[in-house]
Design brief:
Spore Coat Polysaccharide Biosynthesis Protein SpsA, Chain A, 2 domains, two-stranded parallel sheet, 20% strand
């Protein structure tokens, strides 16, 4: 909340909506927000990240929507830079930026190859595309910027499909593809996607998320949800499933990693193979 109030953009051009998704105790709102039309909190009773994002989309009035998770600290110029990029790239419908960690405990060495599972992105050049298979240009949900039109199109599609509503975190599950589904829907609508180095935020990562058992479950669920998303989109061909199975075998044999890193690699590829076969 403090990082949002330190933004360099003119506050008159920003609407801040906090979605309270079953928080106990409820989210504490600063006193000076209580009489502001541009600063407000809403309660979304349906738990889950996708439900919270959909509520934010429907509540927002602006032409550009920026998603900020509760463990994200936006750089002071994040919103101003996002607006500049939206104006400079009129055919880019969705984009994100660099996501750097603030670890609250020293991360183990075996985790480093899988930092992307923590929604970290430390790329060093701008990237853009309109091809859904180019995963490097599919930004993470943390700090995701999306224009209003494709956001509403995504909301219309997902609201009527219970299977897509369940692609991201809810209850204690660590599924993680709701943001990817949003980006791919944006591409379906004829827009492009991008990642820009000038946009950056800090992702605060508590010690509990560095736990090996949690990371192994997370790796499986990330792979599973991405495979399931492709299956729901009709992209689970026999050839793709065979390749996924082959990569699972190679991961098991330790072709790329050893020790706990190997087990995370196996978990991801096995989950991905299962997801492709789930529909």
């Amino acid at each position: 909340m403090a990082a949002l109030t330190r933004q360099t953009i003119d506050a008159a051009n920003v609407e801040i909506i906090v979605v309270d998704n079953g928080s106990e105790p409820p989210v504490a709102i600063p006193p000076d927000w209580r009489h502001s039309r541009r600063r407000r909190a809403v309660v979304e009773p349906t738990t889950g990240l996708t439900a919270a994002r959909l509520r934010g989309i429907h509540e927002a009035n602006g032409d550009l929507i920026v998603f900020v998770d509760d463990d994200n600290l936006l750089a002071p110029d994040y919103l101003a830079t996002a607006v500049q990029h939206a104006e400079s790239w009129p055919r880019i419908g969705v984009f994100g930026g660099r996501i750097l960690p603030e670890f609250q405990a020293t991360p183990p060495e075996w985790l480093e190859p899988f930092y992307s599972h923590l929604a970290l992105a430390a790329f060093d050049h701008d990237e853009w595309s309109n091809l859904g298979d180019d995963r490097a240009v599919i930004p993470c949900g943390a700090g995701l910027c999306i224009r209003r039109a494709p956001a509403l199109a995504y909301a219309a599609h997902v609201t009527t499909d219970q299977r897509r509503l369940a692609l991201d975190r809810f209850d204690d599950r660590t599924l993680s593809c709701g943001d990817t589904d949003m980006v791919l829907t944006c591409l379906d609508e004829g827009w492009g996607s991008a990642r820009f180095t000038e946009l950056h935020l800090t992702h605060v990562i508590p010690a509990s998320r560095l736990d090996y058992a949690y990371q192994r479950r997370l790796a499986h669920d990330i792979g599973y949800s991405y495979g399931r998303l492709l299956a729901l989109r009709g992209r689970s061909s026999r050839g793709r499933r065979m390749i996924a199975f082959g990569k699972t075998v190679l991961a098991f044999l330790g072709v790329k990693h050893r020790g706990r890193a190997r087990k995370l690699d196996v978990a991801y590829h096995y989950g991905y193979w299962r997801g492709l076969r789930s529909v």
